[in-house]
Amino acid sequence: xxxxxxxLQAPHxxxxxxxxxxxxxxxxxxxxxxxxxxxxxxxxxxxYCEVEHAIxxxxxxxxxxxxxxxxxxxxxxxxxxxxxxxxxxxxxxxHVGATPVPVEPLAxxxxxxxxxxxxxxxxRSRALIPVHLYGQPADLDALxxxxxxxxxxxxxxxxxxxxxxxxxxxxxxxxxxxxxxxxPGKNLGAIGDGGAITTNDSKLAQxxxxxxxxxxHTKYHNEVVGWNSRLDELQAALLRLKLxxxxxxxxxxxxxxxxxxxxxxxxxxxxxxxxxAWAEPVWHLYTVRxxxxxxxxxxxxxxxxxxxxxxxxPPHLQPAYRDYGFxxxxxxxxxxxxxxxxxxxxxxHLSECAARQIVEAIQTGLDKLA
Length: 370
Ligand SMILES: Cc1ncc(COP(=O)(O)O)c(C=O)c1O
Description:
Blueprint: H1 10-14, H2 16-29, H3 36-48, E1 53-57, H4 60-70, E2 78-82, H5 88-95, E3 99-103, H6 117-120, E4 125-128, H7 140-149, E5 153-157, E6 165-166, E7 169-170, E8 177-181, E9 195-199, H8 202-211, E10 216-218, E11 221-222, H9 233-244, H10 246-264, E12 279-280, E13 286-289, H11 293-302, H12 332-340, E14 341-344, H13 352-369
Parallel strand pairs: 2-3, 2-4, 4-5, 5-8
Antiparallel strand pairs: 1-9, 6-7, 6-12, 8-9, 10-11, 13-14
Residues 59-61, 85-86, 88-89, 131, 157, 159-160, 181, 183, 193, 195 line the site of pyridoxal-5'-phosphate.
């Protein structure tokens, strides 16, 4: 049978009775868009993130687009983004008509390097989007100070960081707005698409509530040119149940990460994740780096172990951004990460026994590759 990279069914089998009851509750409610479930989920998620407001939207990409739009970012503006992120971070910038300006990461944490921001600034710089990549918080204090000094709004991309803490405080309310994805594979995943924005700014929250709903607070009265980007009642009802299990799932991910850390540290040429002292990551992904990444992945596949690559092609080298004129070598750290990074199985239903088998296979595989 092997060990799959991810198991999306197991958490739903475990919760099936409750999930079906929640589905029935929505079916019988007669209210399927922006009703009680979304209201309740928004309250519960905001409380979980230790923040004033949560606004449910259709997906994580929309969460970033709407945040930028509500903060006034648009054509002519430049937005600093990590060079190594999922392309959605860049797409959000492009969709509001602004220009993504890539900044290379720290080689240790893979998060945006605060010391490289200055070189990327221009008179058109208006915003900064740090991504809490793989579930580890970026260095928010340094980033927020830089943003403040240079008049940039900060929109965090927390699509991979549900429950993570920076210096003891939950991710969700540090920047002006924080975008979340509830794509099924996320630490808090829906059974379909979903997303949210969190913020402590009440006026911004109000603007976002209109923007996600045709630019309207009152039916058939449209104050701004908005979207239709709403979290479904059904997904909200299911997410409410899954939110109750999030901390338990994250704790299990941490114990698997600790096992990987202990067993994989010091293996030849293998880089394991570096966690900053102030970070409490939630291990959305556990990524290792190795110069013979593809050979290692093939060996693990032969052993029946699923792995994935996050991400094989950095945004600046995607055809979607060909017009920007980036060439291989223009962002070498992101490119090196794309060549060498491998994500190991990591999810709340991965058994300790399976994790030990993965470790043994890596040890044997690296011996063969040496
Ligand atoms: C870092 C990052 N940003 C944004 C997104 C976009 O989220 P969604 O797939 O819900 O649009 C994702 C997830 O896919 C992501 O990993």
